[in-house]
Design a protein that fits this description.
The complex is a heterodimer of chains A (about 950) and B (about 300).
Chain A: H1 2-14, E1 17-23, E2 26-32, H2 38-46, E3 64-67, E4 70-73, E5 86-88, H3 101-108, H4 118-131, H5 137-143, H6 155-167, E6 179-182, H7 201-205, E7 221-227, E8 233-239, H8 241-245, E9 249-254, E10 278-279, E11 285-291, H9 294-303, E12 305-310, H10 317-321, E13 340-348, H11 351-357, E14 360-368, E15 380-386, E16 389-394, H12 399-410, E17 417-420, H13 436-448, E18 452-455, H14 458-464, E19 471-479, E20 485-495, H15 503-512, E21 522-530, H16 546-562, H17 567-574, E22 580-581, E23 587-588, H18 593-604, H19 606-609, E24 617-627, E25 642-648, E26 654-658, H20 667-679, E27 686-690, H21 707-734, E28 741-744, E29 747-750, E30 756-758, H22 759-767, E31 773-779, E32 799-810, E33 817-827, H23 834-853, E34 859-860, E35 863-864, E36 882-888, H24 907-922, E37 925-926, E38 928-929, H25 933-941, E39 946-947
Helix pairs in contact in A: 3-6, 12-13, 16-24, 20-21, 21-22, 23-24
Chain B: E1 6-8, H1 13-22, E2 27-30, H2 34-41, E3 49-52, E4 62-65, E5 68-72, H3 84-89, H4 91-98, H5 103-106, H6 111-115, H7 128-134, H8 162-168, E6 172-177, E7 180-185, E8 204-212, E9 218-224, E10 235-241, E11 246-252, E12 259-264, H9 269-279, H10 290-307
Parallel strand pairs in B: 1-3, 2-3
Antiparallel strand pairs in B: 4-5, 5-8, 6-7, 6-8, 9-10, 10-11, 11-12
Helix pairs in contact in B: 9-10
Classes of the chains: A alpha+beta (about 950), B alpha+beta (about 300).
């Protein structure tokens, strides 16, 4: 066997071919293996990493390049096919550093968020426009329908292409453009409230931004994993002998080398980097290999022999609720002899009384499939050790937590660990845990004294999961005849998969995040998270509250119908006020619920359409709310949750350093705007360094929609501190009082005009004696909430609110649902960068459409069946409705310039709005997600009003 | 001894067949590569030798001879729309071609490749590790069909979208084999066995797709898929009538082969539909259920008859 492998490897490496390629008008002679793909040749051999790798199976478009002017997917294009052909990659689009006009449009329209799909999107658009320079809107959408984007909802990408086309003289009709903004009070601001592209947008559109797998560290080894083929099995023995002997293999490791448990929550330290005694899901890592290249590492994995003793697998959440009897539990630490991980229960008021007082009640069972973040960039990391200890460059939303757990697992102090987040191709919660692959490459690189890199393939990304929990729940609500909500009771079970992740938080969020936006005094829930032998669930955009929000909003729709009241009116009657408290003592400050709902009602023509459209055509509405960061940190301590440093010296440029992770949502740009606003500077005098645990001060990371509120406030405080220092120095120098000075347009002036100096002169004065100025700002949430057990869950210094109206058409012959329009409004407090805010909202609505209509994680015997971008169905451009965006500004009293979250909360109402619209269209209630045309058809045929998949 | 990787680029059909013969069966012809390369990535196609046919100019171009339109097998799906003869006489073929995959796929994939596209199954088009985990199926040297959890036959689906359109218009193929050239009826190449879905000898090159002229075809083409792009079919139907009242239904996505029902416009439509549904041995190996896809056959055919006013 081993000899065979040796021969195979030798043969495979012996006959390489020389390939003549003309890439971006440069001649290359490239040595390739005969079956290498063009993608590999471009990225690995030539080093043109602007071309991305997303799925490796021609299903996402991230790798698109032009071959003789036509866009093709380089991941399924043989390199040798390109002999003598003309290749254009994203690096060849801008000329002499000047962006192509189409690239400029991408930048200026805000079509770039994480930027990972951008190169492929640009190449596809260029190829198409070359063929069809004056397309219609539909033709543009069709042309881009093979390129998946997970951030933007495509709206701004389509706008960018359309505007490019229009400037060449072709009129494009039907384009839903721009955004409505209400209550904007930006008159006093120079920077805040002005939409602007991300700082790094040009770099991303040119393919120059480096993502984790684009960064090549000298002399690095490649790591591959062997994964369990059983959902629940005891590992009897592992024989790595043959693998170790393979030429080019540097190390083969098993779980016993990394025995220390970790998990993002201190209360859920239940995972090891590699399975030790047993495996708990199909796909769990059981051994890892570091080798000279990927091929050898993969071959070595296949030579590892593992003997398993198969254990009874727990694959359904119902079974995991029960006593396991003689079977072995998934985790021995479960409290009783079952697989329940966490039970969260809170009750307020008197639900029994509420139910009996209600004139009408509705009790419904729901079933939601799990879904995955499906970010376009697969996980990747490179680790090495030097005089500073460990450095790891990795695609993470949470450098700080990874920093902590690398130190823990590798048993080194935190001062020997450095985590660097490069540009990141989307997260949505899927990169917000410390991951086994990060621990493993860190360990292997220490063991071998060489850098070790890893990139997961798409199947591994799906197996790593941490996506939205599959959920089953029963919810009951009651209403009085005059439309007042009397009671809400929910019993919720969520499927956590094999490990804890954020699950304890998810369990609480499933319940506590139902106590707004409506006032419900008799409110309670029980949520149980169970372990099952499946890839673990975790946090995903809208964390914990998306599925129960669906239940609430669709039940409200039922109750409204039962009391014969417009569902919008019922909502207006029950909205919580501004500056109030919820029944569970959440402090509500700003609250734009009413404004949001009014905006979408007016824009959509709700009154004229709801209930009045012909069979098969309907309108539906729903609302939602979300936290702006968790008030309580994951690790209980007195540390601020965000810290921002500013440094300025003789060149006058202010360097912002922050641990906040820009994952494509634009937080670096947000920090720059906040600091520039306070200091009256232009962007030329600002630079941002973020998410490097050695260089940047602590920030807890990008999750729970906390960054704008918390890091934004820290940046504002830091900038105000710097302003005070500079003004004091200038005042002293000019012998005026500092309160008489103001700072704006890069000048420091006094009211009486006696002082009028440039920023640079002011800095020269302020740094004369000290050389440089360093200031700090920080943010810590105020003390909030009640003093009962569980009171901390869902507390936030501020909450966002939103509403969506959806218009659907249902084909009654096939049950297929088409969402024609989404009118969405979200109360973001204040849009610091409206262009970025629109992008966040549109992306949220798009992601919600995916969960509503097509996305699910499908299992067979615990094995994930659709772990690729073909069968996991993210909506394409053609599947995405028109999106009409409304930014509602309520100026939050504590947010930076009044801002609060905008990255997650908008998702909640879109799914129930679609379901309610389906009811309006065909009278069928959908109680399971994704909405299944087959079930719709069945319900239509049998005149049923319920449908459960 | 395991053979080394080879990539060959012949410039004539004869050269290609010669190269193929020298590989003793251990090769795969490749054109656009969109199907072969994705299958190779998953380890479902492992031939050490790839013979790239795209340099053979005789396999390109569209011409007319003997009342047939000859479409070179290497014509790319996206390029078909630029040929007036196709656009005028066989617009359904363009519609079918434009429904394949995504624009990026259609920029590389060829018409010949699409009709020879490997059969698919949710439980087969998976990685090597995945197939090992679930237990190898019939199509990858296992003992039983995983999708049906035990049957001894393979039901991987024909997923070509152009094949049903072509078959409904009585398309034929011009083949080059080591023994010479021959013509076959397109639907006859599909065996109905998911493991060996085509009866063509390995040493066969599809030279051209032939469509009969002067039949004044009217075709309704439909494709069931979850998204409007980037999808293999869950059910493709093409219903064609010609100027003599001949009617032909062809389906893909619901059986290892194309389901074909021929008749006339005067036939009892319900009987035709019944026959089509009966012929479709669909199983639960798609993101849509077997039942739904079979139900949709009826819906598609009804709609097609209606649109054809027959």
């Amino acid at each position: 066997m081993l000899q065979q492998w040796e021969q195979k490897m030798k043969a495979k490496t012996s006959r390489m071919k020389i390939l003549d390629l003309t890439i971006n008008n440069v001649q290359h002679k490239v040595l390739v293996h005969p079956h290498d793909t063009l993608n590999k040749a471009l990225r690995e051999t030539i080093g043109l990493t602007g071309t991305k790798t997303g799925c490796e199976q021609g299903s996402c478009g991230a790798c698109s390049v032009l071959v003789d002017g036509k866009a093709v997917q380089s991941c399924i294009y043989p390199a040798l096919k390109c002999q003598g052909k003309r290749i254009t990659t994203i690096e060849g689009v801008a000329q002499k550093g000047r962006l192509h006009v189409l690239q400029e449009k991408f930048v200026n329209k805000g079509a770039i968020q994480c930027g990972y799909c951008t190169p492929g999107m640009v190449m596809t658009a260029l190829s198409f426009l070359d063929k069809n320079p004056s397309p219609s809107l539909l033709e543009i959408k069709e042309a881009l329908s093979g390129n998946l984007c997970r951030c933007t909802g495509y709206k701004k990408i389509i706008e960018a292409v359309a505007e490019y086309v229009q400037e060449s003289g072709t009129r494009i009709s039907g384009l839903v453009k721009g955004v409505n903004k209400e209550n904007s009070a930006s008159a006093n601001h120079l920077m805040v409230g002005q939409g602007r592209p991300y700082l790094e947008a040009s770099k991303k559109v040119k393919g120059e931004a480096e993502y984790a797998d684009d960064i090549r560290v000298k002399n690095a080894l490649t790591c591959q994993f062997l994964r369990s083929v059983y959902p629940h099995a005891r590992i009897i023995s592992i024989d790595t002998t043959a693998a170790e002997k393979l030429h080019g293999v540097r190390a083969v490791i098993t779980g016993k080398e990394l025995p220390i448990k970790f998990g993002v929550l201190p209360i859920s330290q239940d995972e090891t980097a590699i399975a030790i005694e047993k495996t708990r899901y199909v796909g769990e890592i059981v051994a890892a290999v570091a080798a000279d290249n990927e091929k050898i590492a993969k071959a070595a994995c296949q030579l590892i022999k593992i003997e398993y003793e198969v254990l009874h697998p727990f694959l359904e959440m119902e079974e995991s609720l029960e006593d396991v009897g003689d079977h072995e539990q998934i985790h021995s630490h479960s409290k009783f002899n079952n697989n329940i991980h966490k039970k969260a229960e809170l009750r307020f008021g008197n639900q029994r009384e509420g139910l009996s007082n209600a004139d009408l009640t509705s009790r419904v069972e729901f079933d939601f499939k799990g879904i995955n973040h499906a970010f376009t960039e697969p996980h990747a990391a490179t680790a090495w050790w030097d005089e500073d200890g460990l450095t790891i460059i990795t695609a993470t939303q949470v450098p700080h937590y990874l920093h902590r757990y690398l130190a823990k697992v590798l048993e080194v102090p935190m001062n020997r660990v450095r985590v660097i987040k490069p540009y990141l191709g989307g997260g949505f919660g899927g990169k917000s845990d410390p991951f086994p692959h990060e621990m493993i490459v860190a360990h292997l690189s220490r063991k071998l004294g060489r850098p070790v890199r890893v990139r997961l393939n798409r199947e591994e990304v799906f197996l790593t999961n941490h996506g939205r929990h599959p959920t089953k729940m029963t919810m009951e609500m009651g209403v009085s005849k005059d439309g007042m909500l009397e009671v809400l009771d929910a019993d919720i079970v969520i499927d956590g998969g094999a490990y804890g992740s954020f699950g304890v938080v998810t369990s609480y969020y499933n319940g506590v995040l139902l106590q707004a936006p409506y006032k419900i005094d008799n409110f309670g829930f029980r949520a149980r998270r169970v372990y099952t032998n499946k890839p673990q669930s975790g946090a995903m955009r809208g964390h914990g509250a998306v599925n129960p929000r669906y239940a609430v909003e669709t039940i409200i729709d039922r109750l409204a119908e039962q009391i014969n009241m417009d569902p919008c009116e019922l909502r207006f009657k029950n909205f919580l006020d501004k500056n109030t408290k919820t029944v569970g003592e959440f402090r509500i400050t700003s609250n734009g619920s009413v404004e949001c709902l009014k905006a979408v009602m007016n824009q959509s023509g709700w009154v004229e359409n709801f209930g009045k459209l012909p069979e098969g055509h309907g309108f539906g509405v729903a609302c939602g709310f979300f936290i702006s960061g968790s008030a309580l940190p994951i690790h209980w301590n007195e540390y601020p949750q965000s810290v921002v440093h500013l440094k300025v010296d003789m060149d006058g440029r202010v360097l912002i350093t922050s641990g906040a992770s820009d994952i494509g949502q634009g937080s670096d740009t947000m920090l720059a705007i906040v600091v520039a606003e306070v200091l009256g500077l232009s962007m030329d005098n600002i630079a941002v360094v973020s998410a490097d645990t050695l260089l940047t001060p602590i920030d807890l990371g990008s999750y729970s929609s906390r960054v704008t509120f918390m890091a934004g406030n820290a940046a504002k405080m830091a900038a105000e501190n710097l302003r005070d220092v500079v003004l004091k120095a200038v005042a002293l120098n000019h012998e005026v009082t500092d309160s008489a000075l103001s700072i704006s347009h890069e000048r420091i002036q006094s009211e009486d005009g006696s002082v009028d100096i440039s920023w640079h002169d002011a800095i020269e004065i302020a740094t004369r004696k000290v050389g440089a100025l360093n200031v700090t700002g920080y943010y810590n949430s105020p003390k909030l909430g009640g003093d009962f057990k569980g009171a901390g869950a869902g507390l936030s210094p501020s909450y966002s609110f939103g509403a969506v109206i959806a218009e659907v058409k249902v084909d009654t012959s096939s049950g297929q649902v088409i969402v024609e329009n989404i009118w969405g409004a979200h109360d973001v407090g204040k849009a610091i960068n409206p262009l970025a805010v629109e992008g966040q909202l549109e992306g949220s609505w798009h992601m919600g459409l995916g969960q509503a209509l097509s996305e699910q994680m499908l299992y067979r015997n615990g094995l994930l069946v659709n772990s690729n971008m073909l069968d996991y169905k993210i909506p394409t451009t053609l599947d995405t409705s028109n999106i009409h965006s409304n930014i509602i500004e309520t100026i939050d009293p504590e947010g930076p310039f009044g801002a609060k979250e905008c990255g997650e909360g908008a998702l909640h109402p879109v799914i129930p709005a679609v379901a309610n619209a389906i009811y309006d269209a065909i009278g069928v209630r959908v109680t399971s997600l994704p909405i299944n045309p087959e079930e719709i058809l069945k319900a239509i045929k049998s005149n049923k009003t319920e449908t459960v998949a | 001894m395991i053979a080394e990787e080879i990539y060959l680029q012949p410039s004539t059909v004869e050269e290609a067949l010669e190269m193929a013969m020298l590989q003793k069966g251990d090769f795969t012809f490749i054109a656009g590569g969109t199907d072969v390369m994705a299958n190779r990535y998953q380890g479902n196609e492992n031939a050490p030798c790839l013979i790239d046919l795209t340099g053979i100019s005789v396999l390109k171009g569209v011409s007319i001879s003997n009342d047939y339109l000859h479409i070179g097998a290497l014509e790319k799906l996206d390029d078909l729309q630029h040929f007036h003869d196709i656009l005028d006489e066989f617009p359904a073929l363009i519609e079918a071609a434009q429904s394949v995959g995504s624009p990026l796929i259609r920029n590389a994939a060829t018409l010949g490749g699409n009709i020879l596209c490997e059969n698919r199954c949710l439980f087969y088009n998976q990685s090597e590790w995945w197939r090992e985990s679930i237990g190898y199926c019939l199509k990858c040297d296992g003992d039983i069909c995983i999708a049906t959890q035990g049957k001894k036959a393979c039901f991987s689906e024909l997923v070509s979208d152009t094949a049903p359109a072509l078959i409904s218009m009585d398309a034929e193929l011009e083949l080059a084999e080591t023994t010479g050239h021959r013509r076959v009826i397109l639907e006859d190449i599909y065996t109905g066995d998911g493991v060996y879905p085509r009866n063509l000898d390995k040493l066969t090159i599809v030279k051209a797709i032939l469509l009969p002229l002067n039949r004044e075809f009217k075709t309704v083409f439909k494709k069931l898929r979850q998204r409007k792009s980037l999808e293999f079919t869950s059910l493709t139907s093409a219903v064609t009538v010609d100027n003599t009242g001949k009617l032909k239904i062809a389906l893909s996505g619901v059986d290892p082969k194309a389901v074909v029902v021929a008749g006339t416009v005067d036939d009892d439509k319900e009987a035709l539909i019944k026959k089509a549904i009966k012929g479709a041995r669909a199983i639960d190996n798609d993101m849509y259920s077997r039942k739904y896809r079979r139900d949709m056959i009826k819906v598609f055919l009804h709609q097609s008859f209606e649109e054809l006013s027959i």
